[in-house]
Design goal:
globular, about 120 residues, 11 strands
């Protein structure tokens, strides 16, 4: 069983920053590629970022590239999403994800494990 618990969401003005955290259970953290998706009201869940199990490779959605940074800390079994220069269109529920297959991040329907989500609201 893999459990993911997100935190760090909140309300921020455009141009501000937030850091999301996703704490995981067990000792299998390094067996999974970890990532983030988000879902805005009335929209489908969309890919945001992913980091490989080794931490050596990352990928970002074009909409967040240059503004968001994903990282992981194996000792703390935690993955982070640093979000800078936030825009109103970043407003969404952000979900932590875990999957053994990197290519599964091409579609949220293929992700094996999800966190409960944390709300990020960016005011204009």
């Amino acid at each position: 069983q893999v459990q993911l618990i997100e935190s760090g969401g909140g309300l921020v003005q455009a141009g501000g920053s937030l850091r999301l955290s996703c704490a995981t259970s067990g000792r299998t953290f390094d067996d999974y590629h970890m990532g983030w998706f988000r879902q805005a009201p009335g929209k489908e869940r969309e890919f945001v970022a992913v980091i490989t199990w080794s931490g050596s490779r990352t990928k970002y959605a074009d909409s967040v590239k240059g503004r968001f940074t994903i990282s992981r800390d194996s000792a703390k079994k935690t993955v982070y999403l640093q979000m800078n220069s936030l825009k109103p269109e970043d407003t969404a529920v952000y979900y932590c994800a875990a999957d053994r297959n990197y290519d599964d991040y091409l579609s949220p329907t293929r992700i094996s494990y999800w966190g409960q989500g944390t709300q990020v609201t960016v005011s204009s």
